[in-house]
Amino acid sequence: MNPKFPYVLLVGAAVIIFILSCMLLTRGRRSPSCESQPSVVEKTGSRSQSLVFADLTAEEMSRVVRYLQGNLGVPLVDASRAKPSDNCIASVDLQVPAKAEVLRFLDGGGARPAREALAVLYFGNQADPNITEYVVGPLPAPAYHRDVTVHKYGGKVPYHRRPMLGSEYKQLGVFLETVAFAAAPTFLREVFEYDRTNVAFQTTVPHGFQSGDRVTWFVVFQNVSGFFVHPVGLEVLVDHSSLDISQWAVSRVFYNGQYYRDMVQLESAYVQGRISVEKVRKVPWDGDFSSMKPRAPAAALFPVQYEPQGPRYSIRNNHVVFQAWSFAFGMSVSTGLRLFDIRHKGERVAYEISVQEALSVYGSNCPGGMSTRYMDGSFGLGRYTSPLVRGVDCPYLATYVDTHSLSEGLRPRKRKASLCIFEQNLGSPLRRHYSNLQSLYYGGLVNSALVVRSIATVGNYDYVWDFTFYQNGAMEGKVQATGYPSSSFLHGDGLRYGNRLWEHTLGTIHTHFVNYKVDLDVGGVKNSLVAHDMAFEMTRAPWSPEQQIERPRLTKKVLDTEDQAAFRLQSKMPRYIYFAANSKNKWGHQRGYRIQITSFAGDHIPEASAMERAISWARYQLAVTRRKEEEPTSTSIYNQNDPWTPTVTFADFINNETITNEDLVAWITAGFLHIPHSEDIPNTVTVGNSVGFLLRPYNYYDLDPSIYSHDGVFFTSEQDFTACEINPLACLPKTASCLPNFPPFTYDGFRNM
C-alpha cells in the first residue's frame, strides 16, 4: 500500500467537507426568513370611518347589560339558567345605523351616527309574556333605551315565537330523563342498554302545526362521535308550551314504525311482547363508521401557500384593504358574516352584502325527519360561528380574527379565530393569451384573490361562508356545506325518502336554500335594473340573398317594477341582469354591475303550505326591491317557531313599486338538493355542495381594471424572458426562496364550552 494514500484520502475528505459546508452556507444565505409584514388587527379605538359598522366590543356589550339590569325595573335572570317563566336577555348585537345617516357621515362630512346596540329580551315573568327589542345607546355610555318592537313588526311579538334557549334544551333533557324515560325502564334497559349517558337527542322545528304550538319531536341517537347517523328508532314528542315546566308532557311516542300514546303505553306493549324490536348494535364511543379519525397514517405533507414578501392586504380594526378593494366586515349574531361599504378603486359598488338565512326542508317516514324545516338564522349563524383550525379551515398563514358575541348570558364570549382573511393563488390564470400567429408573445395574470371566511356549525351541518375579491373588480359570495347528514331510523318504505347509509341509518333527502342581501350602489345610490340577453333572428346573407343566416342579436329591457324584477325559482331569467348607474363609460354604455347566480335549487315548499309565507324569499332566485329601512332583512328569527303567522313575510316586500332610478336591493337565493349517499359517511364533503353568486363589472370600466395589476406577465419572442426586469417570474428562484415563518399551531375551540 502506498504510504501517501491515507493522506490523499484525508485531503480529499477535507475538500469534500469544505465544498458541502460552502453549499450549506450558500443555501442558508439564499433562504432567509421571508419578509415580515404582519397584517396586525389593531385594537378598537381608531377614528376610522369603518367603525360605524364595527361589531360591539366586549366592554360595550357588558355596559348594555348593566344598563338594562338597572333601568328596566324588572329582574333579569341569566339566560343560561332561565326558566320559560323568567325574564332574560337573549342577545345583544350592533344596531346598524340608518343608511342615510351613514352616507352623510361617510360621504358628506356629516356627524358620526350614534353608536347603539339592539337587545332582544324575553319577558316570561309578566301577565303578558312577550319578546321585546330595545335599541340602547349611546355607546360606550348608555343613557337611553327605546322599544322598537312595534315599529319593526307592527305589534308585539308573541312569546311562543321565541327561539329556544340552551337552558330550555337542558330543561327538556332533564324532563326526558326524569319523567318520560322513567315511564319505560324495562324497554329502555333491555332494548338500548340505557344508562342515562348513552343516548343523545336531536330536536325538530317548527314546533307543531299552528300558531301557539310548542310541541317538539326528540329523535334519539346513540351518544357517540357523529351521533347524527346513529338513530336507534325511538322518537318522543314533548309538549312544552306551558311556562310551568311541571306541566310539560309527552304527547306521542314513535318506535320502529309504530306510534304510541306515551312512554307508558310503549313500556306496556313491550312487556307484553307486542312490539317488533330492532336491536341496534352498540358502537364504541368514537362512533365506528362515523368517526372522522383518518384511516390512513400520516404521509407527505399537503401543499402550503405562503407570502414571500408578507401579506399584500392590510386590516385596521374592521377595515380591509386589498389592492383596489376596501370594505368593512362584521358578524351578526343571527345572520353571521356581513360586509359594508365595499369599494373598488375608491368608488363604492355596494353598501351592504350579507347572509340572510339558511333553510333546509327534510323528508322521511319517521315523524322527526318528515316535520323538519330548519331556518338556521333563528339558531344563530353568527352565534354558532366555529373557531377555525389553522391549515385546514383556512390557509395556515391566513390572518385570524377574534370576535365577540353576547347571547344567552350576561357576559360576552370571545370567539377565538372565528374569522379568517387571506390572499389565495387559485392556481389558474385570471386571463391569458399565447400568440403564435403574426406576433409572438405571451400575456397573462395570475388569479390571486382575497378571501374573507367564517364557518358556522349549526347542529349537524357546517356552512363555510366565503366572500372573495378578484383583481378584475368581480366579487363572489359562496357557501359550501359539509358536516354530518341528518338521518332517520331505516324501516318500512324508508328508501322512498333517501338512501341507506348503514345498517339502520337512512340518509334523509333534504334541500338547502341560502338567501343573501346585496345592496348595490353602482355609481351612486340611484340605480335601475336592466336585462340583456340573446335572441336569434333570421336574415338573408347580404352577399348571397338566396341563403339564410340565424344571427344572434342583443336584446335589452329595463325592468321598471318590483313585479318584473321578481324571478321565480323555476322561471327563465335573463342571462345578463345588472344594476345600471346614471353615468356612462367611455364608450357610451351605462356603467353597471352584473348579478350572476350559481344555484341548483328546486322547489322550496309548495306555496299552498301553511308555513310557506315564512320562507317566501325562497320563491325567488332573484328579487330586486326598493331599499327601505323598514325592510332590513328578508326574514326574522321569530319565523322559525311560528311560520304559520310569520313576523316578517318577504313576499310582502314585492308590491309592484317602481324601481327605475331608485336605491335598490337584490335578494339572491341559491340552493341545491342533497340526497345523502354512502360517500356521505363519515360525513359530507364540500365538493359539489357549493352555491352562491358573482357580482361582475359590466361596462363599469373602460377596460379590464386588472390590466393595472402588478402581477401581470408579458414577454415577446424577441425579449429575454429570463430577465427579471422583463418577466418577474424569472426572479422567483431569488425572491421566493425564503423560509416562511409558521407560527405554532394553537386551537381554542374546546375552551369555555
Automatic annotation (TrEMBL):
GO biological process, any: amine metabolic process
Domain Copper amine oxidase N3-terminal: 162-257
Domain of life: Eukaryota
Ribosomal protein is among the record's keywords: no
Keywords: Copper, Membrane, Metal-binding, Oxidoreductase, TPQ, Transmembrane, Transmembrane helix
SUPFAM superfamilies: Amine oxidase catalytic domain, Amine oxidase N-terminal region
Residues of the Copper amine oxidase catalytic domain: 305-707
One GO term describing the cellular component: plasma membrane
Cofactor(s) of this protein: Cu cation
EC number per UniProt: 1.4.3.-
Pfam family, one: Cu_amine_oxidN2
Domain Copper amine oxidase N2-terminal: 76-144
GO molecular function terms noted in the UniProt entry: copper ion binding; primary methylamine oxidase activity; quinone binding
Post-translational modification remark: Topaquinone (TPQ) is generated by copper-dependent autoxidation of a specific tyrosyl residue.
InterPro entries, sorted: Cu_Am_Ox_Cu-bd (IPR049947), Cu_Am_ox_TPQ-bd (IPR049948), Cu_amine_oxidase (IPR000269), Cu_amine_oxidase_C (IPR015798), Cu_amine_oxidase_C_sf (IPR036460), Cu_amine_oxidase_N-reg (IPR016182), Cu_amine_oxidase_N2 (IPR015800), Cu_amine_oxidase_N3 (IPR015802)
Residue numbers bearing the 2',4',5'-topaquinone modification: Y461
Active site, per annotation: D376, Y461
Primary enzyme class: oxidoreductase
Positions of transmembrane segments: 7-26
Cofactor note: Contains 1 topaquinone per subunit.
Protein family per UniProt: Belongs to the copper/topaquinone oxidase family.
Name of the protein this chain belongs to: Amine oxidase
Organism (species): Gymnorhina tibicen
Taxonomic path: Eukaryota, Metazoa, Chordata, Craniata, Vertebrata
Gene designation per UniProt: Aoc3_0
